[in-house]
Specification:
With about 325 residues, the protein is of the alpha/beta class. It has 2 domains: about 150 residues, Molybdopterin cofactor biosynthesis C (MoaC) domain (Alpha-Beta Plaits, 2-Layer Sandwich); about 150 residues, MoaB/Mog-like domain (Molybdenum Cofactor Biosythetic Enzyme, Chain A), CATH 3.40.980.10. It is about 35% helix and about 25% strand. It starts with a helix and ends in a 6-residue tail after the last helix.
């Protein structure tokens, strides 16, 4: 008799398994357009359509479309949405109506489909209410414009976005780690020998730069006490923040927190507690991780586990907190 786990893995139709993913902020912005010709445009503009004010009804339909998206698309995850809004714009030059939708939530998967469903519902409502006076209608230009959250962070349509939406893109002032000079240290015997690629360290650097920080140093070290101690002490005072990844488990060679704890001025216990509690729901084994943070002089050191998931989740959880913590460590004015 086949193993039941294998049976489900081999099924041809199944939802993406997001069981072990951590909920993060998600947002999607979409657009679409309906061309309504002269008679239809005049009726919409002047509120003369027989079924009522189509623009107001289309906004409501768009919100409903986002909320009901999962019922129309078989493999779409049902999501609790935190915010849905529809904006409709009359375009006299092209005799069209442009619909924009924004959908936001905190979830394990994105809201692109919900935002696309919102735009389509709004456009179809426009179609339904306009066709009595003008049947030659055309829906076009439906697309995702901006996506925020998830593995890739920010995504913007390669063909660009309308100028009116530029303010919705993050600016340098919105980057939480702006001005932070950081170092990344990967602890791994095998990676230090070149036996496999250091993916966690590279992800850390990408995330730090994405959130506005600068990389002052990157090193792959073996799990050796003296090597780690020497390198950390050499970095202290040269960077604001040191991230280590790896060596936080229970194995004999997992020495990172022990070595850094021995030379640190003090431990920041709350950071380790935050890392574990934030990941525990989807990665129960996080409770046996010894991830933590320490201070030496004016440098904050954060020790993350070695997996790529731990690195992604860890910096996502800490990104807003770290600049504030560094300011405390360096005794800077905090307001």
């Amino acid at each position: 008799m086949p193993d039941i786990t294998s049976f489900f893995n081999d099924s041809k139709y199944h939802m993406a398994d997001i069981t072990r993913k951590a909920p993060t902020f998600r947002q999607a912005i979409t657009m679409g357009r309906i061309y309504v010709r002269e008679i239809g445009f005049a009726a919409i503009r002047d509120e003369k359509l027989p079924k009522g004010d189509v623009l107001k009804l289309a906004e409501i339909a768009g919100v409903q479309g986002a909320k009901n998206c999962w019922q129309q698309i078989p493999m779409c995850h049902p999501l609790l949405l935190d915010h849905v809004a529809i904006y409709l714009e009359l375009e006299p030059k092209t005799l069209s109506v442009c619909a924009y939708a924004i959908v936001s939530t905190t979830a394990k998967t994105g809201v692109e489909m919900e935002a696309l469903a919102a735009v389509n519902a709004a456009l179809l409502t426009l179609y339904d209410l306009t066709k009595p006076v003008e049947p030659a209608l055309m829906i076009s230009d439906v697309r995702l414009l901006i996506k925020k959250g998830g593995k890739k962070g920010l995504w913007v349509h390669p063909d660009g976005i309308p100028g009116k939406l530029q303010d919705l893109l993050p600016t340098k002032s919105a980057q939480p780690m702006q001005g932070v000079n950081a170092a990344v240290v990967t602890m791994s015997d095998r990676a230090s020998k070149g036996e496999y690629e250091d993916r966690s360290g590279k992800i850390l650097m990408e995330k730090i730069e994405f959130f506005g920080g600068k990389i002052g140093s990157y090193k792959i070290l073996p799990d050796d006490e003296e090597t780690l101690k020497t390198h950390i002490l050499d970095l202290v005072g040269k960077v604001d923040l040191i991230f280590t990844t790896g060596g936080t488990g229970l194995a004999p060679r997992d020495i990172t927190p022990d070595v850094i704890g021995e030379i640190a001025d003090y431990e920041v216990v709350g950071i380790g507690e935050l890392l574990r509690s934030s990941a525990a729901d989807h990665v129960p084994s996080t409770w046996i991780s010894r991830s933590s943070a320490y201070v030496i002089g004016e440098t904050l050191i954060v020790c993350l586990a070695g997996s790529t998931g731990a690195v992604k989740d860890g910096i996502e959880v800490l990104k807003e907190l770290l600049p504030h913590a560094i300011a405390h460590v360096q005794n800077k004015d905090i307001h």
